[in-house]
Specification:
Layout lengths: L24 H9 L7 H11 L4 E4 L6 H16 L8 E6 L3 H14 L7 E4 L5 H8 L3 E6 L1 H9 L10 E4 L2 H6 L3 H10 L5 E6 L4 H10 L4 E4 L10 E7 L2 H12 L7 E5 L2 H13 L4 E4 L5 H12 L5 E5 H4 L9 E4 L6 H8 L9 E7 L4 H11 L5 E4 L72 H4 L11
Parallel strand pairs: 1-6, 1-7, 2-4, 2-5, 3-4, 5-6, 8-13, 8-14, 9-11, 9-12, 10-11, 12-13
Helix pairs in contact: 2-3, 3-4, 14-15
Bound molecules: adenosine monophosphate (AMP).
The site of adenosine monophosphate has 14 residues, from helix 3.
Length: 474
């Protein structure tokens, strides 16, 4: 617990909590008011080196307290320097892969900066561009943005990044998966060369290590959770059911009142809509959140789920990423994610803050290979909760091998787009020039996981009405 001695001006030897990390004055007060008395491990590790001006490479997931870990040092420095903003500039820039995460970050920063004169603004796709341009026109202290809309504002001359001395890339791996990596590199290049940079990522694929090498100067590495291991307090299991049985299985499960607050993951936006409709037909009230929904609809769905007006939220991986809703009792994977890493993020929505959580995965025989990838990554064989296939899974019981349980073809699981780049090479961009989006799709009619690049050849302008593909506009 903190006491009088932790407040600014007291003896440094006595400092505890956030004061011992160098947080002072109004910021320390607001931090305490927010209920942050003891720093979380990621904060204890990341704040002091940032206060000294060092770059940070952090491996941490949402829920670890990483937002305050990068926000408090930036706020400290901006407060210490006083108001010094030029029109159409941002002193600090925080890039997040999704709109929801960006909104969440701004909310946290506003709480932490209460009582201090620090301005914030959000620049996101899917909402009015005009009001964002107006907001950044006088200059802003901390800008929180998704890469697509930010690129647009910079390209059109509505925002300049030359004065941006602090750059944070949050959820770097998701940024990569969503195909934002080149936007991120371009944005970073436009910021002040002597900037301080922080990169947080929940996992560390090679591309993130490469990105870190390119953007960070002699960084301090901080890490709070071992890579790709699920939290220990989540009980996990698999239910074998054919795709056409899944609706019935899900509705039977949801009839159990112990499922108080449930998030159901679907691999595709279309799938999420279908699951929601089926649930409604079966008498359940459910909210849905995915990249084709307007920002207002997404925020309403989240609010309804957060305040308990609906107990079921159906979501795609990208839309749900970074969401921190306390008290989610169950995660149901209606289907397996294309990327095994996503499984860890999905189930991490439950079992938070030491509370118990249950994660159930519905698996059709065609998804067996994906299930095996997940099990490899979490280093655990998921216990079978129920088997509706009528015969044991031959993969698990090789003695009873039966052809009809073999996946027909699972080689296309990832569509070759695991790293968010389209097959055939990098996008050909020309800085912030207008002809940047040369996404060449693979073939028509394919249902893509949300966030994958568009997959057909032809006239992008006609297909997208001259706009960016929805997944990239997140
Ligand atoms: P984050 O990983 O930044 O999304 O934070 C996860 C949750 O932890 C949020 O609900 C924060 O409000 C909360 N939190 C962050 N730091 C602290 C702290 N030092 N003490 C208590 N709660 C915290």
């Amino acid at each position: 617990m903190t006491n009088e001695n932790t407040l600014p001006g007291s003896n440094t030897a006595e400092l505890t909590g956030f004061a011992a990390l160098g947080i002072t004055g109004a910021l320390l007060k607001a931090t305490h008011t927010a209920g942050f008395t003891e720093p979380k491990p990621i904060q204890a590790q990341a704040i002091p080196p940032q206060m000294e001006g060092r770059d940070i490479f952090g491996i941490a997931q949402t829920g670890s307290g990483k937002t305050a870990a990068f926000a408090l040092p930036i706020l400290s420095k901006i407060i210490a320097l006083g108001t010094k903003r030029r029109p159409k500039t941002a002193r600090a820039l925080i890039l997040a892969p999704t709109r929801e995460l960006a909104v969440q970050i701004e909310d946290t920063i506003k709480i932490l900066a209460k009582g201090a004169h620090v301005s914030t603004a959000l620049v996101l796709g899917g909402v009015s561009r005009f009001s964002q341009v107006k907001k950044v026109a006088p200059g802003v202290d901390i800008l929180i943005a998704t890469p697509g809309r930010l690129t647009d504002l910079v390209r059109e001359g509505d925002l300049m990044l030359a004065d941006t001395k602090w750059l944070v890339l949050d959820e770097g791996d998701r940024m990569l998966d969503m195909g934002f990596i080149n936007d991120v590199k371009r944005i970073a290049k436009a910021t002040a060369p002597d900037r301080q940079t922080v990169l947080f990522s929940a996992t560390m694929p090679n591309e993130i290590a490469e990105l870190a090498k390119g953007l960070l100067k002699n960084p301090i590495r901080v890490e709070v959770a071992p890579q790709s291991t699920a939290a220990a307090e989540i009980v996990q299991g698999v239910v074998f059911a054919r795709t056409k049985q899944k609706r019935q299985v899900l509705s039977t499960m949801l009839a159990d009142e112990a499922m108080k607050s449930v998030i159901i993951f679907s691999r595709t936006k279309h799938g999420a809509d279908r699951v929601t409709k089926d649930l409604e037909r079966d008498g359940f009230k459910a909210a849905v959140i995915h990249g084709n929904k307007s920002q207002n609809a997404r925020q309403k769905a989240l609010n309804d789920f957060r305040d308990g007006s609906v107990r079921i939220l159906v979501a795609t991986d990208i839309a749900a990423r970074g969401i921190d809703v306390p008290g989610i009792s169950h995660v149901v994977n209606f289907d397996l994610p294309d990327e095994a890493e996503s499984y860890v993020h999905r189930i991490g929505r439950t079992g938070r803050n030491g509370m118990d959580g249950i994660a159930i995965t519905l698996c059709d025989p065609s998804e067996n290979s994906k299930l095996r990838q997940v099990e490899r990554i979490i280093r655990t064989k998921l216990p079978i909760v129920a088997d509706h296939l009528g015969s044991p899974d031959p993969q698990r019981n090789p003695a009873e091998k039966n052809e009809r349980f073999e996946p027909a073809n699972d080689r296309n699981d990832r569509n070759g787009r695991r790293d968010g780049r389209r097959p055939g090479g990098e996008n050909k961009g020309n800085g912030f020039g207008k002809k940047r989006f040369g996404d060449k799709p693979a073939f028509a009619g394919e249902r893509k996981p949300e966030g994958a690049k568009p997959a057909f050849k032809g006239n992008n302008k006609r297909r997208f009405g001259g706009k960016r593909p929805a997944a990239r506009a997140a």
